[in-house]
Amino acid sequence: MKKIMITGGAGFIGFHLAKHLLNQPDNQLTIIDNLQRGKRDDDFEKLLTNNQHRIKFMTADLTDAGFYVSLNEKFDHIYHLAAINGTKNFYAMPHEVLRINTLSLVYLLEWVKKQSDPKPKVCFTSSNEAYAGALESFGNLPLPTPENVPLIVSDTYNPRWTYGGTKLIGELFMIHYAQQFNFPAVIVRPHNFYGPRAGYDHAIPEFCQRILKRDDPFGILGSDETRSFCYITDAVEAMQLLMDSTTTDSYPIQTVHIGTTEETNIQQLAETLFEIAGWRPANLISKESLPGSVKRRLPDVTKIANLIGWKAKKSLREGLQETFNWYSSHPLPTA
Question: DSSP secondary structure string, 196-242?
Answer without folding.
Answer: TT--SSSHHHHHHHHHHTT-SSEEEETTT-EE--EEHHHHHHHHHHH
